[in-house]
Amino acid sequence: MRRAAQDLRAGTPVVLEASRPQILLAIETATEAALAEFAAGSAGFPTLLLSGAAADPIATAVAPADLTPGRLRALAHPGRIPAPQARLPVPPHAHAALKLARTALLLPAVLMAPFADDGADLLRVAPASIAAFHPQSQTLARVVEAAVPLAEAQACRVVAFRPDDGGIEHLAVLIGHPEQTPAPLVRLHSECFTGDLLGSLRCDCGPQLHGALQRMAAEGAGVLLYLAQEGRGIGLVNKLRAYALQDSGLDTLEANLALGFAADERSFAPAADMLRALGIPRIRLLTNNPQKLAGLAACGIEIAGRVPLRFAANGVNDAYLETKARRFGHLLD
After folding, report:
1. pLDDT tens digit string along 241-254?
2. Which domains, from first to last, does the chain contain?
3. pTM of the full predicted structure?
């Protein structure tokens, strides 16, 4: 499954292995060479699949003149929904095709056509495998632990956990010895390149990251789980696309939906697995997000309490924080 997503990212067609196999090509990575390979493996004219409201697939015909990388990208531009009269019946396995593109952190827009099955050496994946897959719910292996003294806390260790499907590693930052604490402070922190590394003012991620470490250091123990779930799970490139849409007037939730993703694509199952591997079944969660409380509890982690982690708006992220509270239910009052 992960290999199929990687092939799409590389601009290589993939075959959906169904009763009538279909060949797929992601629009975002389609090149002239990729389109030629797709055409060679097709046994019929392609359909353009897009993600509409609530991630429901939309199918539309593609004219021969549109089968160029530039024209296809224009047809699949984020937020562009074809008029009803231009739509076709949604083909079988359209949901699986679009989910595969999302898993690859590409825009959910693909070409789909019957596969000629001419012996082409293309990776095949079953729709059922795609439906059962979640990029954040794979089995994790504890890989390495190292001491990493921080400005906030010199008594710090970092433990790396690797998904069994070859995905990006998640990290556990341990302050002191939280495994010896009855209910240590724990923070689930989704990676944020712009906020954590660049100090972006568009979000509150940087202050939350460092504020959590400072709070744990003051208590003498705690765990910050640094999860590879950039942009609520849509990836850095798509998060930047969402920023561009927000600059045109959409809020955070609306921008994710316009790109064809769910409002929040994350899973908190990896965090629960990491806590169990660390020997920490009972925690106090440092969060403003009730979904994190519910998500961890559903995965078997005992929540002894919630500890708020609030920071004042900075004049740039005011609307972002307001959207967090109003549309995502964050407890910011």
Report:
1. 999 999 999 999 99
2. 2-132 (3.90.870.10), 140-229+266-328 (3.40.50.10990)
3. 0.91
